[in-house]
Structure formats: structure tokens, C-alpha cells
Amino acid sequence: LRTKSIRNRKTGAVYRYAYAVENRWRRKKGGGKQARQKVKHYLGKVHSFPPAQEIAFFSFMGIEEAKKEEYLRAATAKRLVKALVEWELAAHKAEGFSVDFSSGAVLKDGKPASIAMNEGMLNTFTLRRLLVFKAGNGDEETGYGLAKAFVEAGIRVPEDVFVSVFGKAVGTAPDTMLP
To answer: What mean pLDDT comes out for the span 146-169?
Structure first.
């Protein structure tokens, strides 16, 4: 993912836009290699939201301490991802965005949008990567891949919720995390 800053000539305001890029390595005349990036997909205008309030995940969901294990056992991976996204959006007070979990689209006023939160950006590309996460060859590779997908999407995950999502990614279906 890359962002480009564009300055409005009339007002002087600077806007950031996100793109999914692919790196291609080319040979240079004098030897060696040089990277070239090709834009694969436009991800929308970047909207930044610093953390506005600290909310515990389970209190946001209205789940008592005694019922956490039951909730994590009963919830599907898709349901947990949806709850985590809604929790982060509420914690950052990001309003006016529509997140369609069936298609994985993040929109604002019907246009693609990227929401910069924590260390990553939530957009159509990163949300879809989470929703169709595929388990790797080993547990360690799968764990790193899942953690990377959450960080790139800008979603902080409580440890017990991550363990639950990881267990569903490894145990439910061999090819995909979500049923």
C-alpha cells in the first residue's frame, strides 16, 4: 500500500490518497536491479483519525467478564472481525463511513475510502485480506500472516480474541478462515 499527497492548487490544502501497488524489478544498464511500482488498485482518499477514547473490547460489545470464553467459542471468525472493526471505528470516532462486510467494501459517500488508524489503514484491500485470510503451511506462518493482516488494517486485537480467531483460521476450514 502506498499513499500519495496531492496539493489543491486553489486552496493549498494537501490531501492523501491510497493505492495498492505491485513492485516489479527491472535491470539497470550498469548492472543491478531497480524497483518500479505499478498501481494495481485505487483505494480512496485517506481519512486520519487519532484515538479518541479508550474502550475495552468486551465492554464495547456488552459482554460480561464471565461470558467472554463462551462468546469467543460461539462466534465465527467473520463475526469477530466485524466486531473488531466496529470497535476500532467507535474508538476513533470515525463516522460517516459504510463498511460492507459481505463485499469487503469501505466507502464514504459512495466512493472508496481509506481510514488511517493505529499503524495501518482500513480500506477495501485490507478488509478483504482479513475476510478471506488463508492459513499458511505452519502455525507460525499463519500467526504472522494473521497478525500482519490486522496491523495493516489498523486494527488492534486483544490477545484472547486473536487466539480465538487464529484457532478458527487453523481449525475450521483448511483453505480459508471464514466459512
So the answer is: 93
In one-letter notation, the amino acid at residue 7 is R
Distance CA 112, CA 44 (A): 5
Cell output for 31: 548492472
Cα angle value 148/88/92 (rounded, 5°): 120
The string of pLDDT tens digits covering residues 72-82 is 999 998 999 99
